């Protein structure tokens, strides 16, 4: 599941607003210029599919109310104009400076995926984080008895020394060259493997879990990483300008409640446990009455 969702996030288009100029349409996306793909395998550019994604994405907002009091809500329901691509783009669409294209519901550009995270591959990105965290915690669960058994033996023999000048510390391992040669020849000691893997898996599991937690917070708030950062900057600026402890709260017209927001991001929950790709399903959001004045808390 880690490999499936990782490759899916790498090769799936995040949802690109392609300019109508012919020189852009026929340009091939390449894994070298950070537009998706993996190990020099380029993603497939499907112009019709990208155009369909853009048309479907417009269903996320109510066209009849898109131009009403847009300064009273965040994210904005307004279309925007990209000065780099020279074209109109849907709401919540941003230009990625790394891969030089406009991404639907742009979250961030991920160097580990070699791709942007956006409307069309956000689910695969979230599931990659989920299964990577789950896999690392599973590895820790399998190794913790052996690891703490070795730690107990070491404490009885040498005391509490993690790294020690006489090389009797618990994590004083052989030189890297010896470890690599042992891995190649298949003669690496079990104790060395346990001492290397358990701290590594525990560290990665902790970091990935925190990272996943932040992204789930953004998801249930119906915000992207970029929008959350922009919102924090707006609130900080408001605090400085008003010299008060209250911060600005704007209604989010894209939020349908935390549960529905989560379902919108990951799809039907049973599909989370199957190696299948699920295309985002646009929902016709009923825009809230944005004439409500700004709140301060």
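-> sequence recovered:
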């Amino acid at each position: 599941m880690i490999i499936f969702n990782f490759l899916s996030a790498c090769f799936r288009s995040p949802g690109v607003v392609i300019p109508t100029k012919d020189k852009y349409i026929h340009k091939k996306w390449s894994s070298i210029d950070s537009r998706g793909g993996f190990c020099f395998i380029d993603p497939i550019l499907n112009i019709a599919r990208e155009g369909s994604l853009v048309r479907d994405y417009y269903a996320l907002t109510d066209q009849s109310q898109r131009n009403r009091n847009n300064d009273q809500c965040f994210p904005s329901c307004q279309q925007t104009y990209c000065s780099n691509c020279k074209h109109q783009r849907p709401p919540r669409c941003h230009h990625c400076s790394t891969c030089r294209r406009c991404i639907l519901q742009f979250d961030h550009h991920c160097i580990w995926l070699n791709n942007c995270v956006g409307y069309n591959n956000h689910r695969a990105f979230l599931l990659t984080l989920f299964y990577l965290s789950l896999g690392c915690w599973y590895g820790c669960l399998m190794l913790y008895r052996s690891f703490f058994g070795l730690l107990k033996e070491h404490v009885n023999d040498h005391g509490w020394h993690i790294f020690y000048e006489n090389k009797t510390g618990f994590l004083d391992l052989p030189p890297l060259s010896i470890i690599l040669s042992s891995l190649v020849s298949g003669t690496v000691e079990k104790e060395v493997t346990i001492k290397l893997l358990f701290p590594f898996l525990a560290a990665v599991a902790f970091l990935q879990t925190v990272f996943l937690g932040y992204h789930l917070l953004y998801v249930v708030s119906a915000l992207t990483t970029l929008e959350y950062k922009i919102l924090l900057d707006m609130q900080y600026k408001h605090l400085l300008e008003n010299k008060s402890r209250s911060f600005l709260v704007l209604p989010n017209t894209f939020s349908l409640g935390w549960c529905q927001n989560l379902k919108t991001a990951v799809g039907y929950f049973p599909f989370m446990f199957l190696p299948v790709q699920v295309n985002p399903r646009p929902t016709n959001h009923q825009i809230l009455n944005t004439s409500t004045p700004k709140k301060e808390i």
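Residues 122-158 form the longest helix (37 residues).
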